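Action item from last week, closing it out:
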Amino acid sequence: MISREPAIPAAAANSAAALNRANLHFENGQLEDAIAGYVHAIALQPDFVDAHSNLGNALRRQGKAEAAIAVCRRAIALNPDFAPAHLNLALALLLNGEFSEGWREYEWRWRGGTADLLARDLRRPRWRGEDLSGRTLLLHAEQGLGDTLQFARFAPMLATRATRIILAVQPPLVVLLREASWPNVSVSDGARLTGFDFEIPLMSLPAALGITETAIPTDVPYLAAGAQRIARWRERLPQGSFKIGITWQGRPEAKIDPRRAFPLRSCAPLAALRGVSLISLQKRHGLEQLEALPAGMRVETLGDDFDSGSDAFLDAAAVMMSLDLIISADTATAHLAGALARPTWIALAHAPEWRWLTQREDSPWYPTARLFRQRAAGDWDEVFQRMADRLAPMVSAARGRCA
């Protein structure tokens, strides 16, 4: 009888090699090849928890939330303490709108699976829903600027329960968030934090509060722009046209999925509409695309002093208050526009981030936002032609009111 013992390490080595190849495909955006590779690794080693977890992540990136959930549950069954599988399950659940379990699973992010968190050793109890009467609660940012703008909405809500809320955010957002002037809320850059009884990261609040889709606080606007800054920028904007502010990509160093960005040239059908002025809200990265526009396409720029200081989005917020529409990729600009309750169209990849859910054209996070999803992966031209078709009667109606 031939011993099978040597085949075990050989199978493990082969499955590890298959996993590594699949991971390379995933990093290069080759999702079909990545999925095939993960399936092959699992066939070689059925209990390979890393392969199951990564397969779930890849399926989610294809927009197949229910399939991703099933695969991630299999990974967790193989190893209940494997944090990346719990995190991938959380993202798939949230994408699928299963918030109650999704938020609970999302707490596993602190135990592994992501390197983008700002962890703090604050030596105070984590708030888990306790009575806040007579207490001070610290809310602190943990990830990107867009995440902070989205989840800052909970600060004024919690301020009605606590004596005081300290909101510690990234330094570039401090002045913008102070403009909101929420009662009982002080905004800090997080450099020196004292005098609080409980602490909680911003993105842990939905779990602590038991937030379901229908319980998301949607009182907008919850951010504001300074009146003097609004007046100053209004004078510099084109007059007598339907003004659309556009942002086409985020910051490359933010490690966001590059599929979320769209090429500026895709906005050509919007620029071709009579009476429309496209105005760039883009800052620093991506500005080279302004030099390679299709013939006849024009995009206005706001000058080198636009949002030129260390405080992010102050000028953008002021400009938005005088625009008829903001069109943005999935960036912090989209969250700012939604928080200001401005009419906002968000261009989304075929399989977007969890926060935009699946299929729907509206957002439970931002009542004034409309979502335009790719119908085929990578096809931005169809998205913007659909926008132009939706926009044309709006522009005509606006011109009729001004006539």
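Closing note: The domain at 227-402 is CATH 3.40.50.2000 (Rossmann fold).
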